[in-house]
Predict the 3D structure of the following.
Amino acid sequence: MAMTSLTKDQFLRYLTKRRRKETLQAIGKDLGVSRQAVKQWIDQMNEPSRLVLLVAAMHIQMDGKRK
């Protein structure tokens, strides 16, 4: 099955949901970036790369299979 990346709106919802349970550092570690990068995305001061959007989509897909 082909993997598609998230839209920016989907990504922000993903970050918001994870932020309720996890630290910025933990989220950044999973996505391969710093906690500062995650904070900038949440504050909409910067945008994630296409690779980060793809990695986030993979995390969502894996989480869905675990349930």
